[in-house]
Design goal:
Belongs to the cytochrome P450 family. By secondary structure, this protein is mostly helical. Helix content is 53%, strand content 10%. Strands 1-3-6 form a 3-stranded antiparallel beta sheet. Strands 2-10-7 form a 3-stranded antiparallel beta sheet. Strands 4-5 form a two-stranded antiparallel sheet. Bound molecules: protoporphyrin IX containing FE (HEM). The site of protoporphyrin IX containing FE has 23 residues, from α10 and α15.
């Protein structure tokens, strides 16, 4: 069966669309059919390399603030190094980055509130035992469902007010943050009414970017730092590469040089293989589908276990569980025996729209932290990855951070 036919046969499970509505609304992650085609077409230009280059300086600003906080903490403690919960700080920084990338730093307080409420919403939806998809399941935990809807409405209200304020103020940098681009038809030069998102649609896309855009990227960086702390020779290799490729006095002078950070890319690919921040992808059969003699009846929900697939020895070989960035040296698929075996950003037409933003943020943050500090695992670290929509370290990531 061709990929084209497959794409039309599968949709997002209805059960998740309803359950996750307060978080994503009908934003791109949940959209389908014509609605999805229109949104994807309008949103893609906002993530073009040119637009991303324009927001790079905001990423550098946020990452530098974190570096300065760490340096101050280390100096205050005598200058030799301290234990820092790196996950917490990286998620905070990534939240600031997505807020600035979305809102351009013009509505900082609103952005912070959106992030706080989204986090509370995530805890309500995914940290408690709820019976999603179980018949009458919503009656088992009415309180949590009401709480989630309330938070969803509050986030909507905040975002509507941000959009209206933006329309009234017409700030000079409106066009260079994601919100400005979405409000102007995605930055693709669209002027047709059909080609401009409504306020409601912009709100849902902002929620999607805010949530989908910061935690995943932060976790990619967090798991990478854990792996580098465990494999110091890779830490040294990346640092050496950074100093060879980027000018020491102004590393972000030319963002095009990032493409020469080859080892950093292998390390990122390997971290995303071992600890994919999006640990599973779900689909529902929109019609009866036959796959190599197997009949999947219409309505069937399917989970693609990305973590399982990324650790499958039949696909990756006996060293599947080992950290070996060099497997990506010659092959973007890391030598996986199946072309669909490596899916950190999903697949086909629904592949992650924000991956270039992630690559940029990942390289900026890693360049800055590795240029200033070395990392070792803290004795207090307990390895316990768990899934709360994304794959995260349950007890955070305490690392010993030392100045170079
Ligand atoms: C390490 C970082 C990231 C990972 C691992 C990741 C993972 C994914 C995956 C697996 C999908 C496919 C979901 C599916 O098919 O059901 C996806 C879609 C999506 N991602 Fe990401 N993502 C990341 C970063 C981002 C960022 C930075 C943004 C935006 C600022 C973003 C926005 C989206 C959107 C809007 C979609 C839906 C695309 C569509 O259905 O057309 N993601 N992402």
């Amino acid at each position: 069966m061709s990929t084209h036919v497959m794409a039309k046969c599968w949709g997002k499970p209805n059960v998740f669309k309803h359950d996750r509505y307060p978080m994503f609304g009908t934003g791109l992650v949940m959209a389908e059919g014509h609605h999805w085609v229109r949104h994807r077409h309008l949103i893609m230009p906002a993530f073009s390399p040119l637009n991303l280059k324009r927001v790079a300086s905001r990423m550098v600003e946020c990452a530098n603030e974190m570096i300065m906080r760490w340096s101050t903490q280390i100096n205050d403690a005598g200058g030799n190094g301290i234990i820092i919960d790196v996950e917490k700080d990286i998620i905070g920084t990534s939240g600031e980055i997505i807020a600035k990338t979305c809102f351009g730093g013009t509505q900082d307080e609103d952005a912070k509130q959106v992030l706080r409420k989204l986090r509370a919403l995530q805890t309500t939806l995914f940290k408690t035992t709820r019976y999603v998809g179980v018949p009458f399941g919503k009656f088992f935990n009415v309180k949590k469902t009401i709480e989630a809807n309330k938070l969803g409405t509050e986030i909507d209200r905040l975002l509507f007010s941000v959009i209206r304020a933006r329309k009234e103020s017409k700030k000079a940098d409106d066009g260079i943050d994601l919100l400005g681009l979405l409000m102007n038809g995605g930055g693709g030069g669209n002027n047709n009414e059909e080609d401009v998102l409504t306020e409601r649609e912009v709100v849902d896309e902002c929620k999607t970017f805010f949530f989908g855009g910061h935690e995943t990227t932060a976790l990619a960086i967090t798991w990478t730092l854990m792996l580098l702390a465990l494999h110091p020779h890779w830490q040294i290799q990346l640092r050496r590469e950074i100093f060879q490729v980027l000018p020491r006095d102004n590393p972000f002078h030319d963002i095009n040089l990032f493409s020469s950070l080859k080892k950093m890319k292998w390390v990122m690919n390997e971290a995303l293989r071992l600890y994919p921040p999006a640990p599973n992808v779900q689909r529902q059969a929109r019609q009866d589908i036959e796959i190599e003699g197997l009949m999947v009846p219409k309505g069937t929900n399917m989970w693609i276990d990305v973590v399982g697939m990324h650790h499958d020895k039949e696909l990756w070989g006996e060293d599947a569980n080992e950290f070996k960035p060099e497997r990506f040296m010659e092959d973007v698929n890391g030598g996986c025996k199946h072309k669909m075996g490596y899916l950190p950003f999903g697949f086909g037409g629904r592949m992650c729209v924000g991956r270039n933003l992630t690559f940029m943020e990942y390289k900026i943050v890693l360049t800055l932290v590795l240029s200033k500090f070395s990392f070792t695992i803290s004795p207090s670290y307990r390895h316990s990855p768990s899934i709360m929509l994304s794959l995260r370290p349950t007890h955070g990531l305490p690392l010993i951070v030392q100045p170079l």
